[in-house]
Structures are given as structure tokens and as C-alpha cells.
Design a protein that fits this description.
- The N and C termini lie far apart (65 Å).
- With 346 residues, the protein is of the alpha/beta class.
- It has an eight-stranded parallel β-barrel, surrounded by five helices.
- The chain has one domain: NADP-dependent oxidoreductase domain (TIM Barrel, Alpha-Beta Barrel).
Length: 346
Amino acid sequence: MQQRVLGRTGISVSMFALGTLHLGAWGNSDHDEAIRLVHTALDGGVTLIDTADQYSGGEAEEILGKALRGRRDDVVLATKGHFPVRREDRDPNRRGNSRRWLTRAVEDSLRRLDTDRIDLYQVHRPDPATDIDETLSVLSDLVRAGKIMAIGTSDFPAEQLVEAQWVADRRNHIPFRTEQPPYSLFVRGIEADVLPTARRYGLGVLTWSPLNSGWLTGRIRRGERIELDAFRRVVSHKFDLQLPGNRRKLDAVEELLTLSQEAGIPLTRLALAFAANHPAVTSVLLGPRTVDQLTDQLAAADIRLDDAVLDRIDEIVPPGTTLNPSDVDHQRPALAASERRRPLAA
């Protein structure tokens, strides 16, 4: 497994990482099987594991805490905070990027993960209610206290990445060192802005959903019934075949399946190799539910796509294009109808 340096942290991580969205109730609730999945990843050369306090209501972090006993020092451990840990929690102060919440969230993650430090702590989404100066201030304090080794973001637009770098420089805060955006053959919007910005500021980039929630496995096609597990039911709009963007994906799947057959590369591995191919991408987060899925996906580490294949991909899905806008989880507040509509004249 190729190792790459994570931005300017000096930390090396594997080109494929283990994402843990599906550990626990959101995917595999069998803890012994989930632990075996983690150990298989480590034995396969994975050195970066990414989770979040929100995943399965904290259960994913708890599983990781058990899985990493005796192997903690072999892993670059990343987690995230911002969302309420449990969906039913309506307390407005148990979410967001405030000092009050992130201080508590980090302590809770440390306890669930059964560790004394988090190697990379990421702000899971932007928070328009909290000044970025406030967020960087508390995260800097937690770094200086030794509870966090490095900090990053997830799903931040390019302009907010730039603002955060500016604020960190002028307020003497620890800067964000990484960004974690969605990136796949079907979600290429970050190529136009986030990836160039990350390279400009030396940010490590950890991309998620390289298989576009299963669309790029080749199992979602016209006439095939889509199985909605616990997590897919939460994001069911991503599988609504009445949406124009999803109909475009059905067309693209057929073209990509033809390309994968011509190239002699299974579509899943083609999609993973594509995500890892961009020079601005440090590591691609895999999200398997089973050991067999993980083993199949790790085989993509040996694949390098040539220019002919990449050119054909660009013809099917042009660079910078996102086929279904709802695949981008963080929708910018400025695009809400309430922000775009001019008030009617009295």
C-alpha cells in the first residue's frame, strides 16, 4: 500500500483509508465482525482510519476503541465533530462548531475511542452560526493540550478554506491541515475549486464516497431494485430515480461498465483508482460493510489508469461536473430560497 504525506503535517498515511460509516447500527451491528473488518484493513496495509462521533450514534467510535486495543500506535486515527451524536437530540447546544460543544465532543470521542489523543480531528461541516475564529481558537487549545495532533475540515467550500487559513495566520491559531470532500466519478465538482485551493495551501485531502453510495459498483442499473439499508433510507433522495441527476447517473453507469470491460478493470476498482489518481488527493476513504467488500476494494491499490482511460472518463463525466447536485451533502446557505428571493415591493 502506497504511503503519502498528509498535507504539511509530516504524518504518512495509506492511499486508501478505512471509513467507518457502516460500523454499528448504520451498517454492520455485529461488533465481532466489525472488529474483524478493521483488523483486515490494518493487515492489508491501511494506516488511516476515519470515523465520526455521529456514526451510529457513537457506536462506530466504540467499536474502533475495542478494535484498536494493542494496535493503537499502528494507526493514524481521525474522527469528526459537529452534528448531534444522536439524531433525536434536539438541544441546540449539543451540535455545531462552538467552543462549548467541540470541547465536550472531543472529550466524548476520546472516551469512546479509548485513547489519549486523536491524530486528526475534523470539523464535520461549516457552521454559519459560529465565527471561524471561535472554532479555530478552541481547536488550537485542544492541540496545545495534546488531545488532538492535527485539525481539518469536511465539506468546506473553497472560500471558507481560504478564510480559515487567513484567520489562523492573523489570530495565531493552529491552521486546518486537511479537507475531506466527496469525490467520485459522479461527483467531480471539487476539481474546479476545492482541490486547487487545497494544493495552494498545502492541505491534505481525504475524499469520501468514492463509489457514490454504491452507484459505482455496477449494481444500480435500470430495472434493478435498489436495496435501502438503514443509512440509505436516511439519504433516500440519492436513490430517487425520478430525479434528473439520478437518471443521468443511470446513463453514465452503462457507459462506464463498457469502459471497465474494455480496460479489463472491474468498475468498483476503476472508480477507486480514479479517485486516488488526482495529484491533490492524499487518501481515499473506503466504506465497506463486509470483509469481502474490503478485500475487493483494497485490490485497487495496484491499479494505475492510463491517459486513454482517463480521457474516456472525461468524455462520460466532464471534469468539474457533479451529475446529481444532491450528492453534495453540504448545500451552501446562500443558495437557500430565503437568501435568493428579493422581497416584493410594498
